[in-house]
Design brief:
globular; Arc Repressor Mutant, subunit A; Jelly Rolls; alpha+beta; four-stranded antiparallel β-sheet
Length: 295
């Protein structure tokens, strides 16, 4: 049975409580770090969200579609859309949660801006004067929220409207490609990730996944780089590393036991693999993460 997608006001908080804000702002690391840098699929029934990503990397999930995050970028999410995120540990930026009824233009309203806001968007903010201005405006929006000075509401409104209007203009000038090749690459990538979920503990090489998908290894690598910016081999290694991190933080098994569960017959090889991927041994990484959680 398919697990229902939860509805939140803010991720991880009870949606039944009546919100006491029209706009909420927080840094992306402040919440995502609590969930091991992975925000599962969820929705906000009455809220429009804007994420400003200034640094780091990751993936944005809209339903079953995965889009790579390449800063500087503004991500907009309309109400009632299933979405989630996977972030790198060096992610930097803000997330703004806005009561949809407060917006001067509603998502889906019969206007250019309303139509633009009705669908999820990743809007690149580099390469143009307007893009740089949107990035600066979102950074100022976050700073104004934190400062809590006089005339705050009027300024927050003005920054928000300016950022959305200019971002919509950028979207019209530089539309995202949506041709058959892009759609096919996304489909192949989802199939690859599904197979990886099934077989990552068996340490199958990229050639195995290419064969299962009816592709050459070179073609699979090309698709992986186009969609995620990483090679198939790097994606396989990242999957094993992510699973190891979860086991190290959330289970009580020894490093050796966790290595065995992840398909590493040699504990020393598991430690070398983890060190190569993260810059720390499994034991040192576990101690550091548990100290953070304890704090």
């Amino acid at each position: 049975m398919t697990k229902p997608v939860p509805t939140y006001e803010l991720y991880g908080e009870d949606a039944r409580k009546r919100p006491d804000f029209w706009l909420h702002c927080e840094t992306i690391p402040s919440r995502s770090s609590l969930y091991h840098w992975e925000i599962g699929l969820h929705r906000h029934q009455n809220f429009f969200q804007i994420l400003y990503i200034a640094g780091g990397s990751g993936d944005a999930l809209f339903g079953e579609t995965v889009q790579p995050i390449r800063p500087p970028v503004m991500i907009t999410v309309p109400p009632a859309l299933n979405h989630g995120f996977r972030f790198s540990r060096d992610i930097d930026g803000f997330v703004f949660t806005v009561l949809a009824s407060h917006l001067r233009v509603s998502p889906g309203e019969r206007s250019r801006l309303g139509s633009w806001m009705a669908a999820p968007r990743l809007t690149r903010l580099d390469g143009s004067e307007d893009g740089g201005y949107v990035a600066l405006t979102l950074a100022r929006l976050g700073a104004e929220w934190e400062a809590n000075r006089s005339h705050r509401t009027d300024l927050l409104d003005a920054y928000l409207t300016s950022a959305l209007t200019l971002a919509a203009r950028l979207g019209e000038e530089h539309p995202v490609k949506d041709d058959a090749a892009d759609t096919e690459n996304q489909r192949r990538m989802e199939q690859f990730l599904g197979l990886l979920q099934q077989h990552h503990r068996a340490h199958r090489p990229a050639t195995f996944y290419a064969r299962e998908l009816g592709l050459s290894p070179t073609h699979l690598n090309r698709i992986a780089r186009d969609v995620t910016g990483q090679s198939a081999h790097e994606i396989i290694a990242r999957k094993l590393t992510d699973e190891a991190r979860r086991e190290l933080v959330f289970t009580r098994g020894s490093v050796q036991e966790i290595g065995f569960r992840l398909g590493f017959a040699d504990p020393a090889y598991f430690s070398r693999f983890f060190l190569r991927q993260t810059g720390m041994t499994p034991r040192a990484w576990r101690l550091a993460e548990r100290m953070k959680l304890g704090a």
